[in-house]
Amino acid sequence: MSGQVSYESVAAGAELPEVSYPVSRLSLVKYCGASGDFNFIHWSDRIARAVGLPDVIAHGMFTMAQAGRYVTDWAGPGAVVTEFGVRFSSMVVVPDDDTGATIEVTGQVEEKLDGSRVAIVLTARSAGAKVLTRARAVVRLP
Known about the structure:
Elements: E1 15-23, H1 25-35, H2 45-50, H3 60-75, E2 80-88, E3 101-113, E4 117-126, E5 129-140
Antiparallel strand pairs: 1-3, 2-5, 3-4, 4-5
C-alpha cells in the first residue's frame, strides 16, 4: 500500500484497501521495551488471567500505532499527519501460539479539506471485534 498519494488523486468517499498487521507475543515484548510499559497483562498469561482477562492483550497504544502506520503507509513519505485520534473499544487478545493475533485496518476518505488536507476515517478489527472507534486522521498531501 505504500507509495505517494497526491491531493489531486484522492476523492471523497474513496475506500482504502484493508491491511492486516500480525501481532505476536514477541512484538508485544518489543513494544514493552520501546514504550516503557511493562504491565504484566501485556506479556504474562498468569497475571492476565488472574485479573480476569482471557489472555495477554496488546497495549492500546500498540493498536493505535498500527492504525497510524496504516495512514502513513497509504499517504506516502511526502505526506504529513496533522491530526490523529482514536477511542479504544475492545482488546486485542494475543494467544501464545504460532499465529498470535491480527489487526485488520481499513479506511475511507471522509472529505477533502482546504490546504491539501484529507480526513480519513479508519476501522480496526481483531478477531471480528472492532478494537478502535472514532478513529480519524487528517493528512496533508503533496
